[in-house]
């Protein structure tokens, strides 16, 4: 497989998750009307339940892929995603829809864990970070267009039309993967599923200072991102009164991550993962402080909010792919298990934080900006501990 096709394929596989997540944003009011749910905070469950399944399932998918190989587990997960999308399409009740969303999240967990494992199987160091950045650039471009695409679907059809699109895309990705994606884990390198061996691999992962440190930091920052996604429809329609135009504002903000992915892929070999991600983390703290101050004094008009949010997304884009590469770098011998534990940690931590912040939405930006700034400070402190007080270069370089 050529390099360009490899990057395009793994990006398309990973896109199953953000597409299923962000295409739902414009449909939330329609779901509320269809199932007679007036509380906007309750409708956030359509997003959070999906992420719950996504985060929890990663815990077991990694060991399974280390034992049976990447390909069969990936294809099985994508199959579950397609079946769950059919269930959502015909959901007769809100509870059934939430069950389908949970199963969708479980299915996409395989795409997240195994794609990272495949990249780690094939690359390491700066090359791995470069591939992850190219992948993330395509992967993150999906949230830029997904809400607008979802809004267009809402103008043409009802909310069930969204799941028709998800079914078609899932089937196409599954067929492409089954046809072209090779197995990247040789039989000689596969690991036992014995409880003792799995626990030992988990222990190796969580006991490594670099892996666990960047995992906690990434999860905390992802919490701020999830809080933004959970409340975005309410913020743009209730505070800024954008109505059906809110996907355009969301897209302009999410575009910052896509730019960061392209930029990181071009310069990470020159400056290194630590220098770029640590500089972005410092910038994230500054942006969080400015946004909180603006919310406190009551001066956060839409242009300023969009500008600060774009900077926030740009910084997040620089951090997340590099944090993932830094966390996975020492775990090549147990890439599947390490990727699953890392994914579970970052996703579940992000959901807990994001849901906590999102449920405190009160019609103002103060809960979100307070939570955002707190997340930036926690992530900064954790990275500082992981690197033993030295930023921008590895603490191992210190004599």
Automatic annotation (TrEMBL):
Location within or outside the cell: Cell inner membrane; Cell membrane
Database matches in PROSITE patterns: MFS, SUGAR_TRANSPORT_1
Transmembrane stretches, start-end: 44-61, 73-92, 98-119, 131-149, 161-181, 212-230, 242-263, 275-299, 305-328, 340-359, 365-386
Pfam families (alphabetical): MFS_1
Domain Major facilitator superfamily (MFS) profile: 6-390
Domain of life: Bacteria
CDD domains: MFS_MdfA_MDR_like
Protein name listed in UniProt: Bcr/CflA family efflux transporter
Taxonomic source organism: Tardiphaga alba
